[in-house]
Amino acid sequence: MSMQDITSKTSQLSVGEHVVYVDETKGSDATGHGTVDAPFATALAAVTLIGNMPEEKQEAFKVMVQKAGAEAYAEITASALKKARKAHKDAANKARRVAEQAEKQQAQGEAKRIEEQRRLEESAKVELTQDAALPAAKKIRVQDAEAHRGQRVKVFGWVHRHRVQGRDMMFVVLRDGTGFLQCVLTDRLCHTRDALSLTAETTVCVYGVISAVPEGKTAPGGHELAADYWEVVSRAPGGDDAISNRVSEGADPSILLQQRHLVIRGERAAAVLKVRAHVMRAFRAHFDAAGYFEVTPPCMVQTQVEGGSTLFEFDYYGEPAYLTQSSQLYLETCLPSMGAVYTLAESYRAEKSHTRRHLSEYTHCEAEIPFISFDDLLDGIEHMVKDVVARVWAEPETRAMIEQLNPGFEPPVEPFVRMRYEEAIVWLNEHNVRHEDGSPYVFGEDIPEAPERAMTDAIGKPILLTHFPGPIKAFYMPATKEDPRVTESVDLLMPGVGEIVGGSMRIWDHDELVAAYAREGLDTAPYYWYLDQRKYGSCPHGGFGLGVERFLAWLLNRFSVRECCLYPRFVDRCQP
Fold first, then answer.
1. Alpha carbon distance 191, 187 (integer Å)
2. pLDDT 10s digits, 445-461
3. Cα separation, 184 vs 162, whole angstroms
């Protein structure tokens, strides 16, 4: 209770009565004044009010209490009064200690501010100059630091973090995109205005000699740079605008997405993007080793591949056009001239989906292969995934980042499970995975994401799920000879993520493809060039598309595919 409250409440008391009232049922310590019309709820409030009066007035007051269920007020008992007085004394002592501590901290803070201001004023007099007697410094990147131990170098980078140790030593961890380097600044190097006001993300250039850290000490790369000179290139703000206030651990996801340009400076986000770069390189190396040619199909098209409901439409010089859903049809046109081909390009789906595995723009690894069987296609998908993982796992730097992001990860070595769609329906029903209304899944319906993932996670191995019914798959997928109800189609399902690859054989008979267009109600005119592939020397062929972000979400154990691309695009998000 503040002194202002006490004064206000005291003024409400009748001096003639010298009584403070407490009603345990109807009273209120917050709004009561201790009067019969506005009593307190506890004896402690009454004693606190009396105890803060001048001593000569305290003895004249008594406390009247109306217990719960009592019909009238009665004077407080001696034991209850003693207990209330003790609680009041303890509270007063605690308040005094808190006030003394606050006063002490304020004094210390003021002394610290004065000292910092004094040091800052003194720092203006400190000017650094390079020692002309030292060897010329060689400019290097952090990743080359080990090869230049014992040499004088200069390194540019961003201040990732820094720590002051006493007046004459400062540790600065520098980041340049290729790695992290601990720099040790001593004596005058720590006394400049730039040193005293150094902030995270400031860009600097540090000169000095790189040496292995002493035994028992740790630093990134096992070495550190003993600085002999440094300078600020560009200063980052501190205070309210410091990067730690713009993006912080545990911030709302929408804030982190809006500040994604700053988030990617963090170690985890940067590691994801670096592994992504190495994975893209591994995909290209895999296809190159297998004799595929990379092609770059157009992203502005006038045809659909995966259904009209997910097309991004725009005006193309007065004609309707779309952002591509898939480059598959264009890849197929390359088979007669280039053989097996692939592309790593963006695809676009106007799906108003907020799930953690959907993006409106994603990187699509697609391939088409001539003269293959369906079994060849399944073997090729499995080999590709295993080979790409093996390639990045064999790179020490990449493996370290994968283990950092996904501890315990082991590359898949066992054969992938091969399961037909019809077998999946049986599995779901046998394991009591059903619709929300409790009804079982039946042949012919699409298996939604949640039950599909539940099955995949339960089995705990990659699954090549095959032979989907024709009505739930794309028009270009051929029916099997042994069962016309199903198609030569496949989805690769990975634990923790679900589907990461979709593929199939392609209808290669001209008349059969025309009939498929008719079933879908599609005009064949815009597809004349695609039909020509069946007219001028067709062949059995197939292909697939892999979502790179989903592959990374599986490899790095990321909760959402949004973490696996530079600037995710999805419903209501097209910034930054």
1. 7
2. 999 988 999 999 999 99
3. 10
